[in-house]
Amino acid sequence: MYTKLITNQLLKNITKFWHLQTIKCSIRITNTTHSNVDQLKSKSSFGKEGRTYCSNYTEALNGREYSDIKKAWSNKETSFESYETEKVNGEYVVNGSDEIEGDENVTIKNLLYDERQDDIMELLNSCENCAELSKLVFKFDDRLKKEHVIQSVILTWMFTSSLTKDAMKENLLKYLLTCLEPYILDLNINETSCAFLYLRKMQVPKTHPVMCSLLTKALDSVNDPLEFVDLAAISQLAVAINTGRDFFTPILCANFISRIYKYIKTCRTREDARLLAICVLNLQPLIDYEILNAFKERISILLQNGVISANCPKVIIKLLNMLNIGVWSHKNAALIRDLLAALKPCVKQLEHNVLKNVCRIYLYHMEPATLHEPLAEALEDLLNRDISPETLAYFVPFSDPVRRNALINTFKTFINSSEVWEQSNSSAHLFSALRALKISDVAICDKYWNGVLKELNYASEADIGQLRFLRHCHRYMNFNNNLGGTYRHLGVEQRLSQMAITAIEYDIFGRMPQIFARLASFVFAYGHTPHCLKKYPNILLSKVINMAEQFTPGDCFLISRGLYISLELRYRYQIPPLVNMQLAAIDSVLASCAERYANISDENQHALHDLNLLVRCLSNRKTLKNSVIYHRILTKYKGVKFDDLNSRILKDMAYNFTATNYLVPEILESMLEYIANNYEHVAGDTVEKVLTCSYNLGYTPKSSEPLQKASLIMLRDFNYMNGLSLVQACLALCFYKAISQELIDKVFCVNFIQRVENEIQMCYSKATYPERVLKLVMQLNRSVCLDYPECNVPWFQQNFIEAHMSKKPFHESTFRRDVRKFLGTLLQDDSYFHCNHVTPYGYQIDFVIHFDRDKKAIKAPMETTMLHQITKVAILLLKLDSFCENDLKALRGPDSLKIKHLEMMGYKVLRIAEHEWNSKYMNAEQAKRNYLKCLLQISN
């Protein structure tokens, strides 16, 4: 049954990941591959037939078409964060050629044989370098058996790097290949796969007769259902085939899947788990979610039983790398979190490369929170030992704000060093540090992007052909977003636009929807093409229309983001007629993609990941933001399931709901429940985003438990969060009357106020950040004074209120002027109501009216002794943004808090909503007059 499933799924998987139906030239590849597989199955002898097989395979697959398709698949990113911001170390890196290292008790020397097997084996294993090995092999040439030859291959790999080219190694390999050929028929599957693996790693051509025979022998064994093939052999063979990326893995390895599925069911040891992780990683195109979920269940059981623990960090790292590839990372967040938590006891003992890998995964998934402190300590130790751009890039997100200036100085030293720029992947590490430090010094930014431009100008044809420059496109678009669109480097924009448009027009990548979307996004955004001020290139529009049915939500998000940037940079003040026509056509494509997604059967769960992307996509286009499909997509949130919730999804949804003012009580309740159930894993920054979202939308949770846990999380992570996040979280907790005394004491003290002032001094956005922080501190101070008078927190914001009011010009809207006119007519005296009144705690009230005991309007009394005899009525004018987007009766949190506080200060609060005031049934003046009379309960 499972074999049938694999057969049916094979072409579906290929189509899913490469969109082969759009690439005509790829038909030749697929057909050739099928014929070669059939040929392979029919061969039982080696020699000429094996050589013919590999020669044909090379001719079919070594062409540019396959190389491009494979690289495009490797670079595919599907997680929301990969479109929103780059990972700490650039994109996800899937190293399918990872060496199959042994665990703690097994070395590579005795991978296959006992080192005491015979005298020659002992002598071979006693060699310490390639020279000794070569001398020994030639000395015993007439006594070498198959075991000795294969062991010599393994030892050759041990002693020399796969990239090393020297005469001794080449001569030794040639001799070993000659010795190995007569023994091929006698090799078992473990010997065959191991020999093939290490010969591949040493770059022996796959067309070599011995290599062809080894591969054919190994595949025959795997394809034979009656032959036993152990897991180690399958994993070695999978890695070997993926090494070099010159085989079409989905076709060649199709029959591996049934065996892997069986091994998943019987997985009992950490070594089995490690080998399965290697197999799944290297055979990813063939792995569907049924297999992946079965493997995840086995790993969870092994974790619970303690089989996988901190005692086997290499196994955990291998599993993490497999689970974290971009294709399915968002589906594996819960297991990734558990594996990271299992690493906690041994974080400080991890090797520096492994530590950086763990850090990258943690920063993306933001769970578990308990890993933050040990990672921060380990990275600081690493930074003290090894000060490099890469280490700095990883350390900055964990650093205290007070260290920002020192880290900036370190960054300046790196960016001015020519030696640093010559290091591998230096531009990625420098970018990560630059962005995390939020440096706004234009000179430093220019220095970095000048280095990138130099790198682009000297890029090799191979790098350009593999689209390495796309990384810089992604970084530049996100970097520009960090500085609010104020920074531009025209040289980088021009060079990247030129490279992108060339790839779109002349390269096969221009025909692949997922790659085209990334290329087109940059060209849309920055132009630098002929007639770019008048229109977008016609080729972009035609390809967008032609690929409309193949775009994923992620592709649509990229395209919409490029359009959004272009409208901000080039067409902010005037949109040319041609651009308007092109935008309309592209909008129809984006809407059709959203429509296609919305029409998915209810039987198929709407992935929150894709849903978040679509909402962001439509939000980027003002013309689509109020469309029917936009609201229809938003309503899809009500039908999603919440089994796959995690911190990344929580932050994405909180952003979307806050930006759109869209209220979905069921989802907000699930988000808060997730915090309550996983409070030991969720970080304070994530909790703050959810609290702020719930507060802004005015949603009150059903239980107080999530709020209590949120308060505890704030205390736990107090030293790791920035001041703005802490103040926002505390304000939301005040709204819910859930802030603890301890948290109030920690916020309203000299140390925290000084901390906020230091952050303001070091912030990168001097135009908006200080004002935003100070305003929120004022609101928090006001809320604590009114809601928690027993805490004895003083009101120290009066000067800020007065200064803020003096700088804010008063502008009377048409709505306000209309209400004031009817109030004057109704009360017959303008002195009976006060406009734009400011309360002692800085609340602004549109109109204040005083009524006596007989409900007659009177002038404001001068003596405070009379206040108990009158009723103070506060009239608030509420605009549309005071209510949730999808419920005009649901008042948002800030306005609800204002009403609650005004009532505490003795006001009777009345509300007039702008959408009701200007509605059709109140179009007549008498209707508005009657509405006010009823509202104020005036009888005449």
Automatic annotation (TrEMBL):
<dbReference type="InterPro" id="IPR010622">
    <property type="entry name" value="FAST_Leu-rich"/>
</dbReference>
<dbReference type="Pfam" id="PF06743">
    <property type="entry name" value="FAST_1"/>
</dbReference>
<feature type="domain" description="RAP">
    <location>
        <begin position="873"/>
        <end position="934"/>
    </location>
</feature>
<dbReference type="Pfam" id="PF08373">
    <property type="entry name" value="RAP"/>
</dbReference>
<protein>
    <recommendedName>
        <fullName>RAP domain-containing protein</fullName>
    </recommendedName>
</protein>
<dbReference type="GO" id="GO:0044528">
    <property type="term" value="P:regulation of mitochondrial mRNA stability"/>
</dbReference>
<dbReference type="Pfam" id="PF08368">
    <property type="entry name" value="FAST_2"/>
</dbReference>
<dbReference type="InterPro" id="IPR013584">
    <property type="entry name" value="RAP"/>
</dbReference>
<dbReference type="InterPro" id="IPR013579">
    <property type="entry name" value="FAST_2"/>
</dbReference>
